[in-house]
Design brief:
Blueprint lengths: L1 E6 L6 H7 L1 E4 L2 E4 L2 E4 L6 H10 L5 E3 L3 H13 L3 E6 L7 H12 L4 E5 L4 H16 L4 H11 L3 E6 L4 H5 L5 H10 L1 E8 L6 E7 L1 H14 L8 E5 L3 H11 L8 E5 L2 H7 L4 E6 L2
Parallel strand pairs: 1-2, 1-6, 6-7, 11-12
Antiparallel strand pairs: 3-4, 3-5, 8-9, 8-13, 9-10, 11-13
Length: 280
Amino acid sequence: MVKIITDSTCDLEIEKLNELGVEMIPLTVLFGDESFKDRTELSPAEFYSRLEASAELPTTSQVNPADFEDVFRKHIDNGDEVLGLFLSGNLSGTCQSARIAAETIGSDKINIVDSKQLTVGMTVLLLECVRLRDEGKTAKEIKIYIDEIKSKVRLIAMFSTLKYLCMGGRISKTVATFGTILGIYPMISVENGEGIVNVTGKVKGKKAAMKFIKDYFDANPVDETKAFAYGHTNSPEDLEVLKETMADSVQNKNIVTCNVGCVIGTHAGPGAVVIAYIGK
């Protein structure tokens, strides 16, 4: 049997992962001297409450090789294959930790995939892994397929605040201040299998930002046979506005929604909305 392993940055709820038969290994978020396992010890709602009250950004920590080794050995010793799908290696050392663990064990039954994505971009690939597993594909066959299609994943997001980009040193305080005054919304994308975050545009006003996402989607057609994912950083109201904006364009039957957790939320802050899908 193929056991699918992922990390917490896929941002699916634990209940949904259990339903899909996927095992999740959490990254860690640190507020000063306090550390929490993403989603298992700190829910998204609790995280955003702490974030807004914090004078400094929390830090995040990747999964270490020993944790992966324990999980991989458990399944290999049970006679199963392992398919691991993890956060972009250009954004975290988590995938590299998984590879180190696999090399230590030295089994050809362990197959590691760098998703080249994050949050809901990982989710749409993860759902493809589940579909292929349920069709009886081997872990190696799933890896080959996911490596082939991951460059087709499109992720586009709106950040509603510049505060956390400023706190993280990604933009200056001056730029953040004027951007806030002018109502500027940075538009963020991860696409073409690059595994990096790009600033795709800067839009004035939330309505224009929502339209930017719809226009991007319309210009980059979706494969409607695959999953489509919405995400938000503790902002269900903005998510509903986005869904209304996208309603005429999105016809996929398999639509999932994620509340983005600690790791990605540290940099986005509350109020972000995002879509991800596999393009034609």
